[in-house]
Amino acid sequence: MKKAGRIKSWHADKGYGFIDIHADLKDVFFHVSALRTRVVQPKVGDRASFELAKGKDGRMQAINVTIAGAPKPGSGDGANWLPAFVGMVALAAISLGALEGYLPRLVGIVSLMASFIAFIAYAEDKVRANRKAWRIPEANLHLIALCGGWPGALAAQHLLRHKNRKHEFQVVFWATVVLNIGALVLWKAVVAP
Predict the structure, then answer these.
(1) What is the mean pLDDT of residues 141-168?
(2) Whose C-alpha in 29, 32, 69, 158 is 20 to 30 A from the C-alpha of 176?
(3) What pTM did the predictor assign?
């Protein structure tokens, strides 16, 4: 049965919060995984509807949480094509640069292979996350990006909607992009002027 209340607290860094249901019950716990859509971050005071269920610890918690005013799942919270397009354009530029001799051919080959591996790794990690199974370590995802797979990783993050909202992950990811581009620019400036 659907219940309603207001968000009393939300800890974005920890991924959980509490809903005040204006009843005799205590505030109800909810985890980020209980949100029906993550397009809108919960804020204190937001109205929410949800269902009550027992969690793994046997305590009551909110599931299927919908924030009032948030888009319904499947209505616009889909893939973000622009960053994915940027990733594919970058991969094409690296590949063409290697084919035309502006970059070493090995760079183009490695970037293509690493981007393919990155996309598959992100897809597998998302499947594992949905199953609540053992995940691919973030360090491994970053290593693939650092080894030239950042265009595929960028496309996967936004087409699969995976790891693209986690701030700490994004900081490290963009550092790998800067290191990759910096290495290519440095190589072009120093080795092949």
Answers:
(1) 92
(2) 32
(3) 0.62
